[in-house]
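CO-FOLDING WORKSHEET

Operator: S.A.
Ligand of interest: flavin mononucleotide
Run index: 376
Mode: holo prediction, single chain
Checklist:
[x] sequence pasted
[x] SMILES validated
[ ] output reviewed
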Amino acid sequence: MSLKSCSISLRILVIVASTRPGRLAPAIAEWFTDATRSDADRADARFELADLDEIALPLLDEPEHPSGGVYRHEHTRKWSRQVAAADAFVIVTPEYNYGMPAVLKNALDFLYEEWAWKPVAFISYGNTSAGTRSVEMAKQVVCALRMMPIGATMSMRIKDSINNGRVRAGVELDNAARRVLAELTRVARAMRPLRVIDNDSETSRPVTALSIAAASEDDLGELLVLQRCCWVQEALANDTLDLAPFRETLADVRAWSDSWQVWCARRNGRVIGAVRARTNGPAWEIGRLMVAPDQAGQGLGSWLLAYAERHAPADATEFALFTGQRSQNNIRLYQRAGYTLQPTPVNDSSDISVHLTKPMHQDVERKSRDATVIAD
Ligand SMILES: Cc1cc2nc3c(=O)[nH]c(=O)nc-3n(C[C@H](O)[C@H](O)[C@H](O)COP(=O)(O)O)c2cc1C
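OUTPUT RECEIVED:
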């Protein structure tokens, strides 16, 4: 785990889009990354592999539209984190019956915002068509997801370019791969600022140049440090250091990030706030709302709270959260947002936390309800 939060390295996710026993796709992906590795190093880009066979997503089994970002299943959350962390994609795809493999379409359909405003390059292969019809079909789909297919592509005829399951490496093919990488990294850097603005308009944000995204593995170290900083005030207010955010290790944060949806807000490359949420019975439970101490007082806490609320699933009936009994500032923030304190159980006098809830009104602008508008 690195704390590369401020790094500007580009993360390129190479998606291996076939799953058939005896498939060619892994060898082609390996050839592509080998052929372009030194150029990638020079461009400060690093590859990550997403082999759809290993990822093994079932056929789309999420009840909500993916544009809401409300995921019930761990396999979706894991896929979401992997795709959200990427700055660009290389899709290594064959052609099946004049189209893209079903496993690729399914993997694309699982998510929405995680793909958006990122470039994608295709490395295709096949018999007569060299996979070009598969790419044409995939382009329609990736454009709907707000990805940008780059101009440089590689289309290999198996007869000409593959021998015994391996790419017949040569200067011509290697140079074509390097051109793909050069264009992909160039466009990826140019597109980064687009992702600062997501479905909220920039003007509705409490501070400028603020971006928010699902937390990825690379964010967790910084998140751990931030939560320790943020809980100092809680410790002082409640006169105890015995608080989970202090005790937790990186492994603990990683463990809970698997069962909660977690979002990190960044400004100029730095994580300045975060919040998590999950379904808990009929409630959409929100927690670990944190704002870096030097960024307090600008409305970030209320904005993060509203952001988490908008991701509630359509069938939730209330919002719920916990805070320290004596955390007056937090309690005031939640009360201003419409939360009311709930009675503490009498047999639980050792617990220093209080429970607040807010009914979910019809007028709450939930992302899940936006879905039909966002997605064409
Ligand atoms: C179900 C199926 C359909 C195919 N359809 C096409 C096709 O329409 N056009 C083509 O050029 N090759 C077609 N092929 C040949 C594939 O391009 C070739 O088998 C390739 O190796 C498949 O990729 P994979 O090995 O990674 O699975 C098809 C292969 C399969 C298994």
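REVIEW:
Residues 27 and 215 are 31 Å apart (CA to CA).
The chain has a mean pLDDT of 88.
[x] output reviewed
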